[in-house]
């Protein structure tokens, strides 16, 4: 049996943000989401939807919703 020390760092996704109880997303994921959202706004004159962002990033809709909420 492998014992994990109590002082082991928590995974990055387990941290909570100031937004509420949603987990904070990794900076790289948020950066990619922001780039996609900005590009979509510039090309189409409208904000990207969570469904469009999820498709473009290849992530679950819940992850795209969380990313948009944190942008």
Shape: globular
Q: How do the helices and strands follow one another from N- to C-terminus?
A: HHH
The largest pleated sheet is described as:
none
Helix content: 40-55%
Task: Report how far the terminal alpha carbons are from each other.
Answer: 42 Å
Radius of gyration over all CA atoms, rounded: 15 Å
Low-confidence stretches: 7-19
Number of helices: 3
Average of per-residue pLDDT values: 81
**Percent range for β-strand residues:** under 5%
Question: How does this structure look, described?
Answer:
The chain has 71 residues and is mainly α. The protein is 51% helix and 0% strand. The chain is built from 3 helices and no strands. It has helices spanning 27-44, 50-57, 61-70. The chain is globular. It starts with 26 loop residues before the first helix and ends with a helix.
SSE topology sketch:
Blueprint: H1 27-44, H2 50-57, H3 61-70
Helix pairs in contact: 1-3, 2-3
């Amino acid at each position: 049996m492998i014992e994990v020390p109590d002082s082991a760092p928590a995974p990055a996704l387990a941290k909570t943000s100031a937004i509420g109880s949603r987990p904070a997303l990794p900076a790289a994921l948020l950066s990619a989401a922001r780039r996609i959202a900005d590009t979509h706004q510039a090309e189409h004159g409208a904000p990207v939807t969570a469904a469009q962002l999820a498709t473009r990033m290849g992530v679950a809709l819940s992850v795209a919703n969380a990313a948009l909420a944190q942008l």
